Recover the amino acids of this structure.
């Protein structure tokens, strides 16, 4: 008993969509390669943004709001500790009399 593939399976439908937009499968698999003298990465990006642009922007806006609220709730101690670590790290990097290699 073998497996019979229908003509309009998912892969065939996807391939038809790609070719209908002026893309070949090679252009989708290798978006940074130059085919016929044009860089097609902008076409791929444009298609992805149109495909789920609303969902992506809603997610980014939601994540940005969460991060902004979390940072606003942190006290001065949080920021001061980060600055102290940065100063210590820069002193190690600028130490001209010894060798500094971070492990």
């Amino acid at each position: 008993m073998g497996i019979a593939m229908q003509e309009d399976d998912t892969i065939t439908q996807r391939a038809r969509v790609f070719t209908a937009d002026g893309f070949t499968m090679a252009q989708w698999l290798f978006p940074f390669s130059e085919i016929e003298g044009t860089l097609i990465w902008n076409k791929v990006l444009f298609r992805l943004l149109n495909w789920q642009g609303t969902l992506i922007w809603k997610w980014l806006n939601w994540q940005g709001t969460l991060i902004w609220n979390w940072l606003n709730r942190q006290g001065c101690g949080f920021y001061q500790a980060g600055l102290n670590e940065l100063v210590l790290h820069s002193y190690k990097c600028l130490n001209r009399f010894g060798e500094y290699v971070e492990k």
In short: The mean pLDDT is 63.
